Amino acid sequence: MNTETVIQPTIDQQIAETAKRQKLEDQAARIALAAARPGPLRDVFASQQDIKVGKYAVRPFFDLDFEFLSELEHPFASFAVGNTKELEEFVPRGPQAWQLFYIMTKPVAEVDAEFIAGGPAAIKAAARKEFAQYQLGGLFALYQAVVKQLTTYASSVVGFDSQEAPDKKEDEKEAANATPKSSVPPPTAPVG
């Protein structure tokens, strides 16, 4: 007959073992989340993703895009300095639309290299070749994606007022009454 005594772990021991196991699992999770994700997993966890429009992917806006647009004397360049009037009046057709779509559907490094190699004339020619034979419906779909990316770009910025508030109570009143305002108008369909 086996006379071995089975010792049951105490509640404190069980709790300690569970806590130790959870701590190891948490450490493993932190290490896994810190690792760069290749390909599709990287894209799933990206904070701002491309927007698919037919065969194109409209990428997020970057600061350099406003330099490109400025070189092209494009109305969207004015957005970088807070002017939205030209955006509101923009009609998504013609050479300026083609140039905007060309820039926003190519990797920023590729567009930069084209600007360095051939300047605005090279971009204008490439944009014309790529988008001039699209109808308004296709151009408008691209425009909606570009506006969405621009809105995302703008919404990731926190407003900043460089003036110091004269009174803390006034700051509290303003904060209580503040409502967020969109800086980019929604896209509108052209009339006519």
Brief description of this entry?
The chain is built from eight helices and two strands, in the order ααββαααααα. The chain has helices at about 10-35, 40-45, 65-70, 85-90, 95-105, 110-130, 135-155, 170-175; strands at about 50-55, 55-60.
Structural description of this entry:
This protein has a domain at 49-155. 56% of the residues lie in helices and 3% in strands. It contains 8 helices and 2 strands. The model is unreliable at 158-166 and 178-185 (pLDDT under 50).
Main β-sheet description: 2 strands, antiparallel
Provide a count of the helices. 8
Radius of gyration: 27 Å
Uncertain regions: pLDDT < 50 for 5+ in a row? 158-166, 178-185
In N-to-C order, the SSE pattern is HHEEHHHHHH
How many strand units? 2
Topology:
Blueprint: H1 11-34, H2 39-44, E1 51-53, E2 56-58, H3 63-71, H4 85-89, H5 95-104, H6 108-131, H7 136-155, H8 168-177
Antiparallel strand pairs: 1-2
Main attributes?
mainly alpha, 3% strand, 2 strands, 56% helix, elongated
